[in-house]
């Protein structure tokens, strides 16, 4: 499992997944001041939502890389037919994918928060919510990637399948981050719900993806 994690992590960086996600994240966030105008108060108030939407779209952009390359070179057939539990294999691949794509997005958030004039407290809260919530997007994406792995052009289908499922992650992630921007908004409760969603998808997502991969292999 550790060898699989290191292999997928290395491939994630070598194939440009992290760079592609970061560039797309930067493009989305940098375009918002031009769309909303130079009002820094408005940008700071909408900052957590802007950063979360950019991170969500950037994560969706790289989800098709989870299994497609392994499918093309035959590695996926060996993983499915091997003696290791497929659930653990998918979970390890999700962890490596998140470390290569989701984690860099969270680490880049403090710098992109300057673009929208986000304060220190709101920036820290947004980073925390991204660290807690983006693994759920990866685990949900594993289900969509497993369903579309047998299709020749399943990248768009993965995004279409995963986006509705990821909306609760977006809602509670933004709600928790707003708890530090607005005094009327809570912080702990949405963050706890976001963590619960991540734990739930961390179990259900790899299980459903493993079943989809076995069905695709059959």
Automatic annotation (TrEMBL):
InterPro entries: Cyt_c_biogenesis_CcmB, Cyt_c_CcmB_bac. It is a multi-pass membrane protein. This is Heme exporter protein B. The chain crosses the membrane at residues 12-36, 42-64, 127-149, 156-181, 187-213. Belongs to the CcmB/CycW/HelB family. GO terms for cellular component: plasma membrane. GO terms for molecular function: heme transmembrane transporter activity. Coiled coil: none annotated. It comes from Plantimonas leprariae. NCBIfam families: ccmB. It is found in: Cell inner membrane. One of its GO terms (biological process) is cytochrome c biosynthetic process. Required for the export of heme to the periplasm for the biogenesis of c-type cytochromes. The gene is ccmB. Keywords: Cell inner membrane, Cell membrane, Cytochrome c-type biogenesis, Membrane, Transmembrane, Transmembrane helix, Transport.
